[in-house]
Amino acid sequence: MASRDAEHAASIAARFGIARSYGNYQALLDDPEIEAVYNPLPNHLHVEWTVKALESGKHVLCEKPIALNAVAAQAIVAARDRSGRRVIEAFMVRFHPQWHRVRALVHAGRIGSVRTIQSAFVFTVLDPNNVRNRPDIGGGALYDVGCYPIVTARYVFGNEPDRAIALIDRDPQFGVDRVTSGMLGFPGGGQLVFSSALQLAPYQRVVILGSEGRIEVLVPFTPQKDHTCRLIIDSGTSLDGSSAEFEDFAPVDQYSMQCDLAAAVFRNETAQEFPIEDAIANMRVIDALYRSAASGRWETP
Questions:
Q1: Which of 26, 194, 229, 250 has its CA 20 to 30 A from that of 185?
Q2: From CA 280, how far away is CA 65, in angstroms rounded?
Q3: What 8-state DSSP symbol labels residue 201?
Q4: Taking a C-beta distance cutoff of 8 angstroms, is the pair 144, 198 a contact?
Q5: CATH says 93-252+283-295 is which class?
Q6: Annotated catalytic, 225?
Q7: What is the pLDDT of residues 140-194, one digit of tens each?
Q8: C-alpha distances in Å from residue 211, one per residue of 82, 128, 150, 168, 215
């Protein structure tokens, strides 16, 4: 456990039973017994400290988004290649069994040909000191929660979008995008339509629409570790929902599952499914959406 405040680091370490604490980040990286680090710092520090960790011989699990833009993220690729260490972007949703099942159902043709995914991830945070409300350190709805509809659409389609368009509403006080909605076009006609927000009543949902039915993910992104998750699979033969089937998933801690798999990757016990190039691909989409909001046109990731 490392912090810029040694007392704070020691307090958190004691609370969670962590054996060591450090009064600055570099001190942790200088410890030769540390094999890997988790980088949960504000978005603008992801590249700097991930690169430093890799160059110190540590593997890295870095919070999303991996950078503030795809160009900056290339420094992580270079550091990975120089160091021979591994780096993973922390998108915990891809480790939850419900998303493994969603992708399996789609690939098996359970709802026919998928053409449209509708996603929403919105909540409220009004504290001006919250990192999400500070544009100077990478705050805003798209970076914080809009990235989830993007990464899960890419996960389901198994492809990269070839165009993007967005609308942004910025908070007049904070300067961050408080509501960002967008559309992505995928090769072959696939579409993602999504909304992300920092100032709307909490809600999240993913609806995957196919030629022979739909799949709804009721709590797609941040289910609590004691929360049973449910998928709705509906052939659409009845508009009142009576044709729907349900699949429930026992509570899991998707963050712990992510960390366990990352540790296995770092120790060469399993293959890395999503290399850091995948994170850069997601970043290119976010970049295109920001460009589109400024230009008012479709942009190419």
A1: 229
A2: 9
A3: E
A4: yes
A5: alpha beta
A6: no
A7: 999 999 999 999 999 999 999 999 999 999 999 999 999 999 999 999 999 999 9
A8: 47, 45, 22, 31, 11
**Do residues 204 and 217 touch, judged by C-beta distance below 8 A?**
no
Partners of 234 in the beta sheet? 214, 244
CA distance 263 to 140: 30
Per CATH, 6-91+258-272 and 93-252+283-295 having the same topology is answered: no
The tokens describing 195, both together, are 């909304």
Identify which of 124, 118, 128, 119 has the alpha carbon closest to the alpha carbon of residue 141: 124
The span from the CA of 128 to the CA of 101, in Å, is 39
261: helix, coil or strand? helix
Nearest to 10 by CA among 24, 45, 37, 61: 24
Query: Given CA atoms 289, 106, 258, 80 in this order, what sign does their dihedral have?
Result: negative
The C-alpha atoms of residue 166 and residue 172 are separated, in whole angstroms, by 19
Q: Encoding tokens for residue 178?
A: 């408080």
- What residues form DSSP beta bridges with 214? 209, 234
Cα–Cα dist 161/21, whole Å? 43
Alpha-carbon distance values, 233 to 151, 154, 239 (Å): 21, 20, 13
Stated pTM of the model: 0.95
Per-residue model confidence as pLDDT tens digits over 71-114: 999 999 999 999 999 999 999 999 999 999 999 999 999 999 99
Q: What is the largest CA-CA distance in the chain?
A: 62
Instruction: Give the closest residue to 297 by CA, choosing from 194, 183, 139.
Output: 183
What tokens appear for 104 in the block? 């399996």
Q: Which strands make up the sheet holding 177-185, listed edge to edge?
A: 163-170, 177-185, 191-197, 114-124, 199-210, 213-217, 229-234, 244-249
- A 10 A CB-CB count for 67 gives 26
Each domain of the chain, given as residue ranges in start order, spans 6-91+258-272, 93-252+283-295
**CATH tag, 6-91+258-272:** 3.40.50.720
